[in-house]
Amino acid sequence: MNEDDADRIDRNRRHFLTVATAVTGVVGAGFVAYPFLASLQPSARAQALGAPVEVAIGSLEPGELIRVLWRGRLVFILRRTEAMLGRLSDNLENLRDPDSEVVDQQPQYAANDTRSVKPEFLVVEGSCTHLGCAPIEDFDLRPSENWSGGFNCPCHGSKFDLAGRVFKGVPAPTNLRVPPYRFVRDDLILIGQDTGAA
Ligand code: FES
To answer: Distance of CA 176 to CAs 39, 43, 118, 133, 184, Å?
Structure first.
């Protein structure tokens, strides 16, 4: 193993531990919150558990990824560059569901070439569709490996492209799920609520 490989694996491990710690923290918070939630009326309880989440994206730089929580689930928001968008057609023949035909994995308005409302912004759940690990971003270009950037799952090696589309020959059966969302403004996304149309 050369130094670059060792460094990349080390970074991936550190990143995975950070995500695992964050998710553990969320689970812990859920237990703490339970007595409070149980005391609420049913409608207020439902809102507290499933309320939409507003995310300000105005300061997101091209190529930058942020992670937010919605209903205790990790959601990735990636501001894709023009170059990233151009790479979405690089590996179509190697993808299991390039045209988003598995209808449960995205709202109808995201069943398009970029799996998004606005091509620049990818919004996907950060939960591998194999056993639910958090995939890790890997945006480097490696043409010799047919890799144009995307997400790698550290648990059993599933791979997803820059639209969250799963590659063939990996354990994950489907693309990363796109949650319901809409743009409140150009710089503000609401996750968990949409109008049913892009
Ligand atoms: S949980 Fe992602 S590959 Fe198994």
So the answer is: 35, 30, 17, 11, 23
pLDDT digits (tens, 9 = 90+) for 53-98: 999 999 999 999 999 999 999 999 999 999 999 999 999 999 999 9
Phi, psi of 73 (to 5 degrees): -105, 145
CA pair distance 66, 21, nearest whole angstrom: 16
Q: What is the pLDDT of residue 197?
A: 72
Distance CA 137, CA 42 (A): 38
What residue owns the CA closest to ligand 1's atom 3? 156
Nearest-atom index, ligand 1, CA of 156: 3
Secondary structure in 3-state letters for 47-115 = HHHHCCEEEECCCCCCCCEEEEEECCEEEEEEECCHHHHHHHHCCHHHECCCCCCCHHHCCHHHCCCCC
Alpha-carbon gap, residue 138 to 89, rounded angstroms: 17
CA max distance for the chain: 59
Ligand 1 pocket by Cβ (under 6 Å): 128, 130-133, 153, 155-158, 171-172
Q: Which two tokens stand for residue 160?
A: 């997803």
Considering only residues 67 and 45, tell me which one the structure prediction assigns the higher pLDDT: 67
Collapsing DSSP to helix, strand or coil, 65 comes out as: strand
DSSP 85: H
Q: Whose CA is nearest to atom 1 of ligand 1?
A: 131
Tokens coding 196: 């049913």
